[in-house]
Q: What sequence folds into this?
């Protein structure tokens, strides 16, 4: 008589045995509605170009943006984030309204054609100043409190154009309270604040700074962006922003801050955003071009890890190619 073959009673592979079973029991997914696509709004007309070949960062003029975004809207992308890139620089904020004309035109065009599209816009001075820093500079020092008034003015202008969520990325102390107060004073009560609550002084921003023309012309941003190793300090940052009236919180970069995203998710009931920054994508592109990995699989795994960590929404340059693929383009 043969001895019966015994094995484990619990077999985890039952939940993985074919594609349909794996799909049924998937705990985390990345859908187009979870993605927000950034665009860099430049002056002029007729422009739709990648800032560098295969960078995924698109510079576009207001007259081309609506047709471009139509493909994303049809595919179901969650939203669009606008970054103004003016030709003329001004270090004191006095020309802010003129500098924002292309962004205003772009916003108005999108608002008219897609009334329900969720629009975000960056609030920061790095692209608007000659020195490339995120606030007002006095004697090569970032003047925190003086910067707040200019950032608040920028937020009010963007809100008046039709932006749904102004998105301060400057990392000045107190800017969420200043912006919320200014929006409410201007009766823009429905304009939300998506705060870059945790933004590290990261090495992964290079391609973005090229596209946004925002590289600092002296020093660095370590006096206002966060040290990458400070997890407790990150908690203080998002707790302050939530208390000051932020409607949603963003962590940047995403991949190097999965633990922080999880910390925010467990401590806050606000919507959590993560920014998959330009350098994160560039790493995958470079590795794929050198035959080291499969880009599509690696990107999917990366996005899933960001969502699994707790992000409700990912700002990602992958939104556009995924939308085009979904539309068969």
A:
């Amino acid at each position: 008589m043969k001895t019966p073959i015994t094995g484990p009673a619990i077999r985890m592979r039952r939940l993985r045995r074919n594609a349909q079973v794996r799909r049924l029991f998937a705990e985390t997914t990345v859908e187009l509605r979870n993605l927000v696509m950034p665009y860099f709004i430049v002056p002029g007309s007729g422009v739709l170009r990648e800032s560098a070949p295969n960078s995924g960062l698109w510079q576009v003029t207001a007259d081309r943006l609506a047709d471009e975004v139509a493909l994303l809207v049809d595919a179901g992308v969650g939203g669009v984030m606008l970054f103004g890139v003016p030709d003329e620089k001004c270090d004191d904020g006095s020309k802010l309204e003129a500098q924002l004309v292309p962004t205003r035109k772009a916003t108005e065009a999108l608002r008219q054609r897609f009334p329900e599209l969720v629009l975000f816009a960056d609030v920061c001075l790095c692209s608007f100043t000659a020195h490339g820093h995120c606030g007002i500079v006095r004697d090569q020092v970032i003047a925190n409190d003086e910067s707040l008034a200019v950032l608040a003015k920028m937020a009010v202008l963007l809100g008046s154009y039709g932006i749904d969520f102004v998105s301060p990325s400057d990392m000045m102390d107190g800017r969420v309270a200043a912006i919320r107060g200014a929006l409410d004073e201007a009766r823009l009560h429905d304009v939300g604040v998506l705060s870059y609550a945790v933004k590290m002084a990261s090495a992964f921003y290079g391609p973005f700074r090229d596209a946004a023309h925002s590289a600092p012309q002296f020093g660095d941003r370590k006096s206002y962006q966060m040290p990458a190793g400070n997890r407790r300090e990150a908690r203080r940052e998002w707790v302050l922003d939530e208390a000051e009236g932020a409607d949603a919180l963003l962590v940047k970069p995403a991949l190097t801050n999965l633990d922080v995203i999880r910390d925010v998710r467990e401590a806050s009931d606000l919507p959590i955003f993560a920014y998959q920054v330009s350098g994160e994508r560039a790493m995958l592109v470079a590795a794929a071009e050198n035959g080291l990995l499969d880009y599509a699989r690696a990107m999917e795994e990366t996005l899933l890890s960001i969502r699994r960590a707790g992000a409700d929404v990912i700002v990602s340059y992958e939104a556009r190619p995924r939308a085009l693929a979904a539309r068969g383009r």
Summary: The first helix runs from residue 19 to 24.
